[in-house]
Amino acid sequence: MPLRQLPLRQFALLLIFGLCAALASAQSNRQDPLPSWNEGTVKSTIIKFVQQVSTEGSPYFVPAAERIATFDNDGTLWAEQPLYFQAIFAIDQVNEKAADHPQWRQEEPFKSAITGDIAGIMATGMEGLGKIIAASHANLTADEFRTSVRHWLASARHPQTDTLFTDLIYQPMLELLQYLRAHDFKTFIVSGGGIDFIRVFSEDTYGIPPEQVIGTTSEAKYEVINGIPTIVKTPNIILVDDKDGKPVGIYRHIGRRPIFAAGNSDGDKQMLEYTTLPHGSDDQTPRLGLIIHHTDAKREWAYDRQSDIGKLDKALDESRQHNWAVVNMKKDWRQVFPKAR
């Protein structure tokens, strides 16, 4: 029936329904997918990239199966000062075990760990941190380790903020993860932190399931203990998922090259290169690298080139050359943590 022949009441209802649908569509278009991000170049670059690669018919369209996004964890998804949170966990575990190892009170780095001397631990370098992590992580079953991490995360307090460590995740990055997944990206963590440690909380905290976590990996062995099939962690490291190790970890675990990568330090430079630099003249796939620059001493911590933790130097220098978007935390983030400090 032509519209002009419809009864007035039916015509009015159709008009109202049409207006409501138009208003709903307009409202949807106006909704901000990244409300904790201030308007600016970085935010607009992210939104433009996501729309280009996910809109069918776009000359930059990327099939959903190839929309891989990788994120560093420490300093990118949650804070990392004054020491990597996994290292703080390891120190706490060493203190719990110290009574069974009296020699630790005279032996570095354990002596500094027991006395709470972070500067002393840092003076022992990565080798010292490795000894602490090995002593606290190895020769446990996977279930024992998982349980110890869960208990620690539920009760341990950050030494400077007196908050739970999971309160120090970045609200803007949670929104970015959700925004990417809403456009059929598969999101992965690619971290120098331990894969077994991050897998305990990644799904509840970030919405990233354990099978999408890549991290520093130690050997493990299978045993049947008291009739129960069991995985036992060992101290031997088989992948250090940092710097050159990050592209290797991506290659081994994902099997696809990402089109988006986010990091915050020189330890992420190789992952950003692997993601964004063209692989030959015929590589026309749109790609985006993102660097979180810690510039906000009031709401978080300000550090970069001289920091022992999360040093950002060479990657910052190369960001313009490679068109990596650099987040100025102080300027670009309206809110840093889900709960204001």
Automatic annotation (TrEMBL):
This is Haloacid dehalogenase-like hydrolase. InterPro entries: HAD-like_sf (IPR036412), HAD_sf (IPR023214). Coiled coil: none annotated. GO terms for molecular function: hydrolase activity. Residues 1-26 form the signal peptide. SUPFAM superfamilies: HAD-like. The keyword Hydrolase applies. It comes from Pseudomaricurvus hydrocarbonicus. It comes from the Bacteria. Keywords: Hydrolase, Signal.
